[in-house]
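So, can you check what follows?
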Amino acid sequence: MGIDNVLKPKSKDEINSVITGFMNEFVASHLPGEFKWRAGQREAIEQIVQTYLEGKYKTVILDAPVGSGKSLIATGVAFILNEIGKTGFVLASEISLQDQYEQDIRRFYLPWGSVKGVDNYMCIDNDEKHSLGTCRVRNRRPTGMHCYSDCPYFSARNRAMEAPTAVLNYNYWLIMMGSKESLFPERDFTVCDEAHKILDIVQSHYSPRFDKETEEKLHRLSDFFSNHRVAYLNKEVEIISTSLENLWKIENQDKIHEILMTIELCFEKFLNGIELLKKRTAEEYPNTKPPSDWRRALYISDWVKDIHCKVEDYNQIILKTSTRNIVKNPSGDELIFNCLEEKYMMNRYFHNYTGFTVLMSATFSDPKEYMRNMNIAGAKHIKMDNLFSFEKSPIVYYPKRRMSYKNIEENSPWLFEKINEIISKHKGESGLIHSASYDLTNKIKDNLTPENRKRIFVYSGTDEKRKALDMMKLTTGKVIMGPSILEGLDMRDDYSRFQIFAKVPYQSLSDRFVKAKLDVNPNWYRWKAVVSILQGTGRSVRNEDDWAVTYILDGSLSDLIHNNRSSFPIEFMQRIQVVNE
């Protein structure tokens, strides 16, 4: 079927005929013989491609529930657009999700590529992470290396560059698109999975962070430079140290920006030293692995380059907008700088590069609020029906006691008693407890019965959470509890048969950026809570035969529903069983 027939259709019927032809080709050439479309999948692909061909909207919002097969929809859309000569990206929010797309590429025999950040690959020459691979530590041109053609990273990157569709994660894509000499030119379309996360990902990507290790790393690198006569940057380290000390104290936004500009200049001096270090490494260790202290210095050098980019980009954003958009956001030992002008950030770093954009998620909640937050002027909204049966998956709601900041202390005894009761009721079954904060996690744990406490896994960071989840899948009757298990978990079937919301997961107002955004847009604050509730309730019911009981113990949910009734899907509301005790 010729491209001209697609690009110049005379009617909707003709467009649909063309799309049907490509859909049939996709099924016949790439999908297994016993393949059957899930309800709504084929129709979603057809509507998205039709929207592209009609040219009325640049953006499609696909509201697709858990289990609807979003990855296959993304694959079908990209395949058809490739067939009419268009190139594109598929973007994933997590490495695990990108792994699923890579499996589909292999399973469906698609001529596509996928590439991740460099340290997801090992150097086959020295068995180090790619950032410390031989070509990097010896400052050699990769294409001149004997292992270049077999290098896992460069092979993946080059294939992705040449492929009609490239699967990337958001952070890698942002790096590539933001590069002055990007290896990935702009493409015709971008399909975005887990699209409700995009705004947070962009904000985080361009938010400089400083912690107690910042100065330690700079001191170690500066000392190495001095000891090996590479460069002398003690002065710059002291300036950065004093600047960071002042940043903790100062609230004036103009002065904060001045200090960040000073830090940027000091980091630029480090970049000069890093180039000299690479040349020295190549000269002194042309054929052998550098000693461990040299490799450590090169590793810190990569970190310096990353943090310099963040500070440089942030300063440019503030220069283009206003110092009034600076939000200084202390978090424990870490000092984070956010920007309130997210419309500029979305246009500059996202919309400028996506072309025709398909935004997919199971939890947009209110599409209009989502569009406002994402700075999208107009979009085609496609909503797929949820075909799961929730007869065995009720949401048991206790509305009488609120767990808001004002009420939680007086209601804590009841909360702890009820959580103990629920865990005991589900003896032998695995489950989740959404605690909303590490502080509440610890208080709940301290008030569990000895028997229930033995069943609980808690965590204090990403690595511990990953280990706890691995343990959950190796045993039964265990419960994982924490504030960050609302998204990204597939706790299907016996991995989780119950889950408890100890508190409605509002964003913490101790976070200055959250507080600043609430002051500007209260609707955003409530929208985020709704999205978190919907994401959380979806962790334990993952397929049509799956089931789990959800308990919500915070009466504050009533206010959230009252103020945002249209944001809650009908199937969520139908599952609620109120318990007045």
Remarks:
- The chain has four domains: 3-112+163-205+343-383, 118-162, 212-332, 395-578.
